[in-house]
Amino acid sequence: MNDKLNLIIILMKQKMPFKRNHFLKLLLCAALFLPQYVCAQFDWPYHIKDGIVKTKVPERAAGQQHVLNLKCEKLPVVRVAFIGLGMRGQMSVERWLHQEGVQIVALCDHEQSRADQANERLRKAGFPPAAVYSGAEGYKEACKRNDVDLVFIATDWDHHFPTAQFAMNNGKHVAIEVPSAMNMREIWALINLSETTRKHCMMLENCCYDFFEMNTLSMAQKGLFGEIVYAMGAYRHDLTPYWDEYWKGGAPKLGWRLDYNMKYRGDVYPTHGLGPVAQLLNLHRGDRMKTLIAMDTKSFNGRKLASKGLGQDVKDFRNGDQTATLIRTEKGKVLEIHHNTMNPQPYNRMYQITGTEGFANKYPIEGYCLTKPAMQRAGVNRTGNYEEGEDYMSKTDMATLVNKYRNPLITKYEKRAKEVGGHGGMDYIMDSRLIYCLQHGLPLDIDVYDLAEWCCLAELGSIAMDNGNLPVEVPDFTRGHWNEVQGFGYAFASTEEEKAQDEANHAFTMKLKTTAEKLWKKYDKAHAKR
Length: 530
What we know:
This protein is 40% helix and 16% strand. It has 19 helices and 17 strands. Strand 2 (45-49) and strand 3 (52-55) form a beta hairpin.
């Protein structure tokens, strides 16, 4: 309030070259005290009314429809272009070489050497070469190709949205690394793009496919924990060994990730912690996030890192070392999400749920705790020396429980996932589900509204903190359809359809490999002339 009074005094002293200068001064002063649309640091408009922040919700265009449970034309063969071939992109290409019924047709990175490196992975695995693109706008040529069905985006954060936007405008499905959208403007644009183009826009949130999370989801869906009332998630990961590894784009910058944390405030990497618990709570499938509040510490280590990297004292490092966000849902559930990449600590995604009849926890102790009635319903006879509902189950009883409630994706993919790897196998399961759903024309596990809900914590949290930690209304990204689908679930084809597709996948991949030697000779000859 004192800041506003000081501004009024300044305005009243100004000489204005207008005939109605007194009226203008009064109008400007009054505006300071009225609820109004303003712009956040991320630039999405919001207003404050009765102590609550409300952000603008754009109207759905005439004729545009939601994409809940979106089904698209079956893709018997998934032809993919990889954009962004740093560490994460290279790992993704390597995993996809273990998938059948797919073809990598294009590889693109700002640095051509990285695209060439990824292409050598194809050669080593016995596949034909992919077309290589590079430079600041190489992704555009890759996205224009008529033989690309899916664009897999693993660029730095700044290029997630422009690449996805261009790809979808060129009729491609997109799968985008996390976080897929960096602000509310990008979030709403991706929603409108998916709804307009009727193309899938998936965020590649691999933690939804980790084994403990998937088994816990199966237990919750069968009512083992009773009513889930509270859930926790986080990304607590000391990135000290990695800050210098993030691409600097040839400029004397900090590297894109630290640079982003310096410029923007909020939970800028919320999806690893939020995604799995959001599925468990059926967000936009019977419940929705309604209100959030956010709070952060000052920047301590972040500011030191930036000062060291830039060789000068950085006084304004926007993001605090630790951010905490509390979210209340329409049905009265609460989520607690944390972010800290600046301070020394063991890796921790905090995955924890509390229900009326049970409890699950992954970090630092992995285990379950159930009431006696819940254990009886589960068919688990206690063998350990513990109190039901007070202590973790014994390892023997936990193994019995997990075996009974084993997630169907684990049953289907575990053996191969652990052979191929990718964060213990969860990356492989994520890839497999994406390919499976595209080939069978089924809804994806993660849709554009999941993307929106899991990414919005950054800007909405920033708005909350920049306004004295006021509560912020979380918009209904489905624009009125959040309660039409009841419960999160995986889509499956019939056993006969699966068998036929698997056989076709194997036949295609074997045939594709027979062309590799000839095509590589042609490729090498063409490139030798350059």
